[in-house]
Fold this sequence. Notes:
By secondary structure, this protein is an alpha/beta fold. It is built from 15 helices and 14 strands. The protein has helices at residues 14-28, 41-47, 92-100, 118-122, 156-165, 167-176, 199-207, 223-230, 256-265, 275-283, 298-311, 316-330, 335-344, 346-359, 366-378; strands spanning 2-7, 33-38, 57-60, 63-67, 81-85, 106-110, 126-128, 135-139, 187-191, 213-218, 240-243, 246-251, 268-272, 287-290. It binds 2'-deoxy-thymidine-beta-L-rhamnose. It comes from Crenobacter intestini. One of its GO terms (molecular function) is protein-arginine rhamnosyltransferase activity.
Amino acid sequence: MHCDLFCNVIDNFGDIGVAWRLARQLDHEKGWRMRLWVDDLKSFARIEPGVDANAASQTVGRVEVVHWVPGVAAPDAIADVVIEAFGCALPHHYQQAMAERQVAPVWINLEYLSAESWVEGCHALPSPHPRLPLTKYFFFPGFGEKTGGVICEAGLTRQRERWQADAAGQAAWWQARGVAPRRGAERWASLFCYENAAVTPWLQHLASSGTPWRVLVPASRVLADVARALGQEKLAAGDSVRLGQLQVDVLPFTDQAGFDRLLWSCDVNIVRGEDSFMRAQWAARPFLWHIYPQDEDAHMVKLDAFLERYTASLDGATRDALVTAQHAFNRHRGLAEHWDAFIASTPMLTRHGWQWAGRQLVGGDLATRLVHFCENRLQ
Ligand code: TRH
């Protein structure tokens, strides 16, 4: 099966993060020949060091990666399956060539992940082209068997369990990256979120708390809020600063496997967007999600839809602690005040995280559901 996957990077790393993860999985696990068209190779190279940001065409792993200049670069051959990630528009001449192909390709629009219930009614709906004999299908990632599912590589749980059981291996891995080993009862948190005014008082709260905390921060948009808490003018990758009970280590960006290891190493993870949000769930540890902000607070509806599902089987006190902390963080105020209650509920949330992660793959992961869907259409 040949597949062209198109990705237009709107901002940050989530668009390419999801597209790259899916391209690799379809290649490695499903045996598809993947060609990934990306309009922003610089962002891609930040999360995949094997990418040459200046190459018009290259092979990374076994995936063919093409620098897509919309309106200029046009695919020469039409694949069996054509995926446009997040509604990026396909070139008109490519659509024309799709229509002229002897067997029309399966055309998929891969949508953003949402836990909202309407997703079940919209997943897999066809949309006939207004002029050409082509049909595009909306493929909605989601939670539940009537959606497109969520991205998860085969064997990920085993890899995570091996990592989390190997304290010496973890210490060696971190030491090789200049991060000192865990000190006694020290707890670790990762912080990968957008700018957020709740971060500065929260870090100051950790600095004066009864527990030693290490916060590991990939060098990203939140750094100014972190620097403010520590009384620093600026922070950069490699910096390590102490304030009372708190030590903050600023990390360089790594590839996606390295990012997983960060999440697997921490007691609590703070993540954002779409892909790191899912990776925190696969880490099976308590997490806070800084959801991508949208106009008119539309993101708060999405946040609540997720929290409703995620907390459905939790007891009232644990649910309240989690939901209150999530709301405070996403409203950019009050995380410091609600942090201790959230942390007190982490033993329950850790157990819950394990069960939740296991349940999300009933009905298959996203790549498996996508392959079945495309194969059925092609028959
Ligand atoms: O970067 P994000 O905020 O991305 C997105 C985009 O903004 C997108 O337009 C928006 O619609 C979406 O959010 C909701 O967050 P996300 O999705 O978590 O993507 C981050 C990616 O970066 C993820 O694949 C993990 C990866 N990553 C690394 O590979 N190495 C690193 O060191 C870090 C910190 C992240």
